[in-house]
Amino acid sequence: MTLLDVSIVNVALPSIETGLGAGENALQWIVSGYALTFGLLLVPSGRIGDARGRRSVFLAGVIVFLLASAACGLAPNGAVLVAARLLQGCGGALITPQVSGFIQTLFRGQERGKAFGFFGATVGLSTAVGPLLGGAIISLFGSDLGWRMVFFVNLPVGALAIVLALRYLPTPPKKSGAGRSADLDPIGVVLLGTAVLAVLLPFIEQRSWPLWLRLILFPVAAVTLLVWVLHERRYGRTKEPVVSLDLFRIRSYVLGAAVGLAYFAGFTGVFFIYTQYLQSGLGYSALQAGLATTPFAVGGALTSIVGSRKVLALGRGLIAAGLATVIVGLSATWVAVLLVPGQNVGWAAAVPLLIAGLGGGLVISPNQTLSLSQVPVKRAGSAGGVLQTGQRIGSAAGIAATGSVFYSAVASSEGDFATAFRHGLFVIVGFVAVALLLALADSLTSKKTPSSEPDAPTERAPGVAQDPDGAPTERHADGRHPDGYHPAMPDAAHGRHAAGHHAAGGSSTP
C-alpha cells in the first residue's frame, strides 16, 4: 500500500490537473512531497520502533496513512492535496522500517530469507503495478472520480491491515519508563533529517530551482552529516543513538547499502521514462501504459522468493548475476525500441522487460537479506531505515538524472520520444552497472558472509513462548513445540525437522 502510492499517482496527474486546476508546481509536489517525507522519517521511525515496540508504531503509521489517504481523496484544491500527500508520506515512513524489523526479529537463517523474499516480491510488484492499477481505476470510474478513487482504494486495504496487525503482530516486553525520551536521540534525529533533506531537495526541485541554489545544498548536507557523525559517536558512548555507527563496520551492510542505492537509481527510472514515452509520445492510455510495464513486475515476483532463500548460501555473487541479467534485459529493451519504435513497442519490449524483471528479483530482496544478515536484532529497525533511505535517495537521484536526459533529448530531437527513451536507458544501465561492479568487488574479495548470531528477541506475541534462537514458538503444557521441537534438540536437528515440516505444508512460526 505504501509503496504503491509512490507510482500509482503518476498516471492520475492529468486527471488531477483537470479536476482541481492544479498547476505544474502543485503536481510536482503531489508526487515528490510524498517521497520527501517518506525518505526523511524512515530512519527515525525505525529507531522509534526499536525503542518503543514495532507493533504500536506500525499501527500508528497505518492509521496516519489512512487518514491522509481519505484527505487526499476529499481534497478540494491542489494545496490541500499536497498537504495530505506530505502527511501520507509520514504514515508510510512509520510503517516501512517496522516490516524489516519484524522479519529480523521473528525469523532466522533460511526462514528469514524466505520472509525477505515475500517482502521483495511485494516491493517489486507494488512499484511496477502502480501505473497499471492507477490506469485501471481511472478507466473504471472516469477522469473526474477516478483520481479520487486512487486514494480511497487504500481505505479497505489499511482497515484490513489494522485488523490483522492486532491479531498477529507480536507485542514488545514491558520496559521501565526511565530514560525513554533519551533513547530516541532527538538531536541526532534532527541532524540526520536535515542532511537527508539537503540531499533530496535538489533532486526533487531539479526543474524548479536554479542550479546554484541546488548545488549549495550538497555542501550543507556534507557538513551536517559530519556534525551528525560526531554527535552520534559521543552520544553512543552512554546511550543508544538513532543510528549506531557500529553498523558501518559490517562489510555486508555497507556494501549492501551502496548496491541498493545504485540499483534503485536505475530501477525506478525505467518506469518513469517508459510511461512518459508510451503516454506522451505514443498516446497510450494510462491502462495500456500500465500493462506495458507489467512484464517487469511479473519477472521480479517470480525470482524474489527463490533469490532470498539462496542468497545466504551463494552470497553477493547471486546478486551480481541478477544485476547482469537486468543489464542484458534493458539492453535488449533498447534494441526493441530501436527496431519497433511505434505503437507496437509495448509488445516488442515485453520479453526484454521480463528478462530485466527476472534479474531484478535477484537483487532487491536478496540484497536486503544479505545486508541485514549480521545486524543485531535490537537495531533492525534503524538499520532497515538507513537501507531504505539510501534507496529513496537513489530513486530521487536516478529519476532526476534520467528525466533530465530524457526531456533534453525530447526537446533536441523535436519530440522523438523513442530516441529520448533510448538515451534515458543509457543512464539507467550506467547506474545498474555501478551496482554490478560493487557486487562483483564484494563477491571476489570476500568469503561467504555468514548469517548473524541469534540475538535475544525484543518482541513476542501474547501467549507465545520463545525458543533459544530467539524465534517465537507455541508450546504444549509440557514444553514441547506442536511440531515436536524441544529446546534441548540441537539446532541442526531442529533445522532438518523444520525443513521436513515445511515440505509437508506446515509452518514453524505461529
From TrEMBL:
<feature type="region of interest" description="Disordered">
    <location>
        <begin position="446"/>
        <end position="510"/>
    </location>
</feature>
<feature type="transmembrane region" description="Helical">
    <location>
        <begin position="26"/>
        <end position="44"/>
    </location>
</feature>
<feature type="transmembrane region" description="Helical">
    <location>
        <begin position="345"/>
        <end position="364"/>
    </location>
</feature>
<feature type="transmembrane region" description="Helical">
    <location>
        <begin position="56"/>
        <end position="76"/>
    </location>
</feature>
<feature type="domain" description="Major facilitator superfamily (MFS) profile">
    <location>
        <begin position="1"/>
        <end position="447"/>
    </location>
</feature>
<protein>
    <submittedName>
        <fullName>MFS transporter</fullName>
    </submittedName>
</protein>
<feature type="transmembrane region" description="Helical">
    <location>
        <begin position="82"/>
        <end position="103"/>
    </location>
</feature>
<feature type="transmembrane region" description="Helical">
    <location>
        <begin position="318"/>
        <end position="339"/>
    </location>
</feature>
<feature type="compositionally biased region" description="Low complexity">
    <location>
        <begin position="501"/>
        <end position="510"/>
    </location>
</feature>
<feature type="compositionally biased region" description="Basic and acidic residues">
    <location>
        <begin position="472"/>
        <end position="484"/>
    </location>
</feature>
<dbReference type="InterPro" id="IPR036259">
    <property type="entry name" value="MFS_trans_sf"/>
</dbReference>
<feature type="transmembrane region" description="Helical">
    <location>
        <begin position="187"/>
        <end position="205"/>
    </location>
</feature>
<dbReference type="GO" id="GO:0022857">
    <property type="term" value="F:transmembrane transporter activity"/>
</dbReference>
<dbReference type="InterPro" id="IPR020846">
    <property type="entry name" value="MFS_dom"/>
</dbReference>
<feature type="transmembrane region" description="Helical">
    <location>
        <begin position="115"/>
        <end position="141"/>
    </location>
</feature>
<dbReference type="GO" id="GO:0005886">
    <property type="term" value="C:plasma membrane"/>
</dbReference>
<dbReference type="InterPro" id="IPR011701">
    <property type="entry name" value="MFS"/>
</dbReference>
<feature type="transmembrane region" description="Helical">
    <location>
        <begin position="393"/>
        <end position="411"/>
    </location>
</feature>
<feature type="transmembrane region" description="Helical">
    <location>
        <begin position="423"/>
        <end position="441"/>
    </location>
</feature>
<keyword id="KW-0812">Transmembrane</keyword>
<feature type="transmembrane region" description="Helical">
    <location>
        <begin position="252"/>
        <end position="274"/>
    </location>
</feature>
<feature type="transmembrane region" description="Helical">
    <location>
        <begin position="147"/>
        <end position="166"/>
    </location>
</feature>
<feature type="transmembrane region" description="Helical">
    <location>
        <begin position="211"/>
        <end position="231"/>
    </location>
</feature>
<dbReference type="Pfam" id="PF07690">
    <property type="entry name" value="MFS_1"/>
</dbReference>
<keyword id="KW-1133">Transmembrane helix</keyword>
<keyword id="KW-0472">Membrane</keyword>
<feature type="transmembrane region" description="Helical">
    <location>
        <begin position="286"/>
        <end position="306"/>
    </location>
</feature>
